[in-house]
């Protein structure tokens, strides 16, 4: 017998669905109440599920309850601020196919050699590298390479989408832009840091109370942002010094004290916090978090992934890894490709 669907049932279902959506969004916001000071940063969006730095991956991360969404920012030939991780296009787009002959001597196609109009003709895909001239997906269990249609976008477009969702949901999700390779941009005659600061000001990010952290790996550049660019723009923003494991001096007592003179936080590689040589019986936690905290610096290590081979041997699971970092090591936030898992961990603990 066919079930008769009554309009009232459909309307009821719709209302229930909307209630569920609203409830989920409210629940997501509760993470901040449950864990004041602890944040989940969606690394390149929900990049464990959709191609990194697409607007789709950002919308998904937003819906998953991340408190901050990350943007890596690179400049185009016509000085548009593009959200993309690499200064080159080869790992995440079909540029080699679309623009043969436009690579540099190293074989790469650089964002800075293309105009926005040209960049918009490219399709974005899950990251890949060439093995014997054949493209091979870097994370095989993630979104299939080359499927569907995704595009590059600007920092402004992403901020407008996040601010628009903040308006429509009542949440206050933040942004976490990274100034990518400022030295490289300078060599190419472009001041990417100045352009990013101007864009943030244009979109209303003007004080340390605003939901934005500006990050970069280059020590001198973050100092320049603090000492010159922000005062010149008449604004203040929270600044995070990214640290590669090889930048050992930044992780010393003196280095952390120096960084504290101009930054609000550290973004170290997670092995600098819990040594990857640790075992389940012997967890080697460094002094970085306690020293940073003693200077009032927050600590947001990167990058938490649950793909095969990315959970350290000292952790039983992705959630256990989060437990060790959030609780044992007392970090203030994590960059993760799987923001739903980190949000759920914090909500359920
Ligand atoms: O910005 C934090 C983290 O994203 C740093 O690594 O290379 O993914 O930008 P990367
Ligand atoms: Ca980054």
3D structure, described in words:
The chain has 349 residues and is of the alpha/beta class. The protein has helices at residues 7-34, 55-64, 95-98, 116-119, 155-169, 182-187, 192-202, 219-233, 253-259, 288-294, 318-328, 339-348, and strands at residues 39-42, 68-75, 81-83, 128-131, 134-137, 174-179, 213-216, 238-243, 265-268, 298-299, 333-336. The strands form 3 sheets. Strands 1, 2, 3, 6 and 11 form a 5-stranded mixed β-sheet that branches. It has a 4-stranded parallel β-sheet with strand order 7-8-9-10, covered by helices on one side. Strand 1, helix 2 and strand 2 form a beta-alpha-beta unit. The longest helix is centred in the first third of the chain and has 28 residues, at 7-34. The protein is globular, with a radius of gyration of 21 Å. 40% of the residues are buried. Mean pLDDT is 93; it is low at 1-23. SN-glycerol-3-phosphate binds at residues 43, 72, 85, 178, 215, 242, 267, 302-303, 335.
Name the bound molecules.
SN-glycerol-3-phosphate, calcium ion
Measured distance between first and last alpha carbons: 46 Å
| Low confidence ranges | 1-23
Strand content: 5-15%
Helical content (DSSP H or I, runs of 4+): 25-40%
SS-based class: alpha/beta
Please count the helical segments: 12
The arrangement of helices and strands along the chain is HEHEEHHEEHEHHEHEHEHEHEH
Strand segment tally: 11
Largest sheet: 5 strands, mixed
Q: What is the arithmetic mean of pLDDT? A: 93
């Amino acid at each position: 017998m066919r079930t008769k669907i009554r309009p009232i049932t459909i309307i009821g279902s719709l209302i229930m669905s909307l209630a569920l959506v609203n409830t989920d969004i409210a629940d997501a916001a509760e993470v901040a109440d449950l864990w004041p000071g602890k944040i989940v940063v969606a690394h390149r969006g929900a990049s464990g599920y959709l191609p990194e730095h697409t607007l789709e991956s950002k919308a998904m991360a937003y819906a998953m309850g991340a408190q901050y969404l990350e943007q890596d920012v690179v400049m185009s030939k016509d000085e548009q601020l593009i959200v993309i991780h690499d200064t080159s296009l080869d790992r995440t787009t079909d540029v080699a196919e679309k623009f043969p002959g436009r690579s540099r001597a190293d074989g790469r196609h650089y964002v800075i050699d293309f105009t926005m109009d040209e960049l918009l003709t490219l399709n974005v895909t899950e990251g890949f590298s060439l093995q014997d001239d054949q493209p091979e997906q870097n994370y095989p269990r993630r979104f299939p390479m080359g499927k569907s249609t995704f595009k590059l976008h600007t920092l402004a477009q992403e901020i407008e989408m996040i601010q628009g969702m903040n308006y429509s949901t009542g949440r206050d999700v933040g942004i976490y832009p990274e100034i990518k390779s400022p030295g490289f941009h300078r060599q190419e005659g472009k001041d990417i840091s100045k352009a990013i600061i101007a864009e943030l000001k244009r979109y209303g990010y003007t004080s340390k109370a605003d939901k934005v952290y500006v990050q970069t790996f280059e020590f001198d550049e973050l100092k320049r942002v603090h000492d010159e660019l922000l005062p010149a723009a008449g604004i203040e923003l929270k600044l995070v010094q990214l640290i590669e494991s090889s930048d050992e001096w930044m992780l010393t007592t003196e280095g952390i004290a120096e960084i504290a003179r101009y930054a609000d936080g550290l973004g170290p590689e997670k092995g600098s916090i819990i040594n990857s040589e640790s075992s389940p019986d012997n967890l080697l936690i460094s002094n970085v978090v306690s020293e940073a905290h003693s200077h009032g610096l927050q600590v947001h290590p990167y990058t938490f992934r649950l793909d095969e081979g990315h959970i350290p041997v000292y952790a039983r699971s992705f959630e256990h890894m989060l437990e060790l970092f959030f609780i044992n090591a007392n970090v203030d936030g994590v960059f993760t490709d799987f923001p739903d898992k980190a949000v759920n961990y914090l909500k359920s603990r």
